[in-house]
């Protein structure tokens, strides 16, 4: 910690959450590990300055409240504000998928691990779309594994600060703006995002596609290019079929499907889900199989540690696990310790990864999803 940090070790927020150490930070805020003095559990506190121009915690909390009960979205513990900062208190989680991939010997996941992670991520994306929101920053560091025995094999979607409601209060799809501004992280952003076009549901799936390619290849072709515009041009010219080399042949259908979608189109989530499941069945992949980071080291004979309490004995199918409510908590939210919001490779202060907050527009396209407007979820987010 430095003197410039919003919180210091030992500081107690709202007479309940004691700061232990800083564990992450970025252009939009800071993350601290803390302890809940009531429940004694470890927590994460996500904090943003009350004076910074780009404030995202309101959106994050609003989206999380609307997503409560979804399998891959966790409960949050609490939130508040004072004259210096806004904050959200979350349950501390395990390593994010970017860290886990980089920890592998060749910096890549096996097809088995990739398929199972991809299926969970797809379900998480479908869940946020089902309530009328786009994530707009789908990337490995915005997904983490649970850190407790009951949830250590479940993937959690993190960081909703860049989310956008794509539906109206009547459930219709909003008409796209002529120019929306760049959103997301350069490496995983869709071509539409690079072109500053309004992002739709398919753009989140494009980012998932790039994630899957990186999972099995260990890298993406534009990984060393720092300029956002150049990365966009590279993606436009690149034959994406080449990216399928190390993925099952079925993923040609995944690519062709997202290529066929336009802004207002609803992706065929059922077809994509069955694609993952079909690939797993053909390869004999089971949900209970160990993930790459859980496999026993051939030399030492020990299990490679990645989360604090996850054990090989807990081989629970994530689809069978219900929300893991902790005694004394009304709500819960997770965060990967090293991630804040889209800061994985290029600094936000240079507006490389994420552009300023977008403007709004009133026109709509029919596609009923959710009838409740965002305004209903924005009230009373930061009680004093």
From TrEMBL:
Gene Ontology molecular-function annotations: ATP binding; protein serine/threonine kinase activity
SMART domains membership: S_TKc
Keyword Ligase attributed: no
InterPro entries named in the record: CK1_Ser-Thr_kinase, Kinase-like_dom_sf, Prot_kinase_dom, Protein_kinase_ATP_BS, TTBK_Asator-like_STKc
Annotated ranges, domain Protein kinase: 17-276
Keywords tagged on the record: ATP-binding, Kinase, Nucleotide-binding, Serine/threonine-protein kinase, Transferase
UniProt family annotation: Belongs to the protein kinase superfamily. CK1 Ser/Thr protein kinase family.
The name this protein goes by in its record: Protein kinase domain-containing protein
Lineage: Eukaryota, Metazoa, Ecdysozoa, Arthropoda, Hexapoda
